[in-house]
Amino acid sequence: MNANDLLSIVHDFESPIYVYDSEKIVSQYKRLTNAFKKVKQLRIHYAVKALSNISILKLLHAQGSAMDTVSIQEVMLALKAGVPADQIIFTPNGVSMKEIEHAMELGVQINIDNLSVLEQFGTKHPNTPVCIRINPHVMAGGNTNISVGHIDSKFGISIHQMPLLLRIVENTGMHINGIHMHTGSDILDVGVFLYAAEILFEQAKHFDRLEFIDFGSGFKVPYKEGDIETDIEELEEQLGERFNDFCASYGRDLTLAFEPGKFLVSEAGYFLTKVNVVKQTTSTVFAQVDSGFNHLIRPMLYGSQHEIENISNPSGKKRFYSVVGYICETDTFANNRMITEINEGDILAFRNAGAYCFSMASNYNSRYRPAEVLWHEGKAYLIRKREQFSDLIAHQVELDFAEASLKPA
């Protein structure tokens, strides 16, 4: 995609708007599968939480992707997108047994990360194959909020609790068919990933009916030109060979599974906003856009950096701007960022807006959530309509205080 394509989308569908490039999504999927082609059985579970639009799920499933889900609603979305139940893994955290049993009834792969739930489930459903999420006690990830494999994390069953886990499995006679980990997001050091993988291999030896080992994901993507990223090819050279060796020692070929979300869709996404006001203060020049953290919360929540380009004036002289939103709280997208000269009415493009951007959008300040467009084979397709006022009140129950029964005494 180029700037003219993005400007044409804003012209046709208005701003703010999310745009996704299908070609980039497909190329990222192929990069990962091609890297691990030496592994006999590979399965990619796309992390639905990253970007859950049903058209994106269909696009990835058409490439051969299975799905990683964390809620019963994501399970239902994946099924709606045509993904077979046996290609969906369900890895919730802290949900009710009712929700887990609902997923079981739908036929998806259950992944349990809690000893109490494991014992309850194994007692009631010992014949249902279950995967176990292990916490390897490895600190990894680009931010504490997205590091989920360390000792203080709420996720997974601690490796130090393996004796108790094994006792539950033995007492219930339950069928463990997979073992899983996810240490965090934005992992750069392949060595850290491999260290955690070795821990998982060691725990896998305790189970004799495994069908797969799921290594989660967390691959780092570049956020700006020259930025560093996870070396997928280096990871394959080391983990792929080690996995094949483990399968040989285990006695049969297992499936190697990954759960990428950001890796597949982040770089494919653009968030387009229009500049409402250019405001000069005593110390700062603010570019105030027609959006806020209600549409893109990651910079405020994680301190994430999204490259911002003025696609209305790409070759202009660069100046320092702070790009801010219209929410009635501080909602700063970028501080003192060098951007080509901005005028009111210009369109700013936020890059790397494919993952955890629209999926975390809200109606804060009673603002509408934006539309979504898929750029596919040179054409723009609307894949989510912009919300309207009727959407804001669709599920509200309006009381009539003129009625006698509701009048104050």
TrEMBL record:
Homodimer. Keywords: Amino-acid biosynthesis, Decarboxylase, Lyase, Lysine biosynthesis, Pyridoxal phosphate. This is Diaminopimelate decarboxylase. Pyridoxal 5'-phosphate binds at residues 218, 356. The modification N6-(pyridoxal phosphate)lysine is found at residue 49. InterPro entries: Ala_racemase/Decarboxylase_C, DAP_deCOOHase_LysA, De-COase2_C, De-COase2_N, De-COase2_pyr-phos_BS, Orn/DAP/Arg_de-COase, PLP-binding_barrel. Specifically catalyzes the decarboxylation of meso-diaminopimelate (meso-DAP) to L-lysine. It catalyses: meso-2,6-diaminopimelate + H(+) = L-lysine + CO2. Belongs to the Orn/Lys/Arg decarboxylase class-II family. LysA subfamily. Its cofactor is pyridoxal 5'-phosphate. It is an enzyme of class 4 (lyase). Pfam families: Orn_Arg_deC_N, Orn_DAP_Arg_deC. Residues 18-354 form the Orn/DAP/Arg decarboxylase 2 C-terminal domain. Pathway: Amino-acid biosynthesis; L-lysine biosynthesis via DAP pathway; L-lysine from DL-2,6-diaminopimelate: step 1/1. Its EC number is 4.1.1.20. The keyword Lipid biosynthesis does not apply. Residues 24-266 form the Orn/DAP/Arg decarboxylase 2 N-terminal domain. It comes from Gangjinia marincola. The keyword Phosphoprotein does not apply. Substrate binds at residues 298, 302, 329, 356. Gene3D superfamilies: Alanine racemase, Lyase, Ornithine Decarboxylase, Chain A, domain 1. NCBIfam families: lysA.
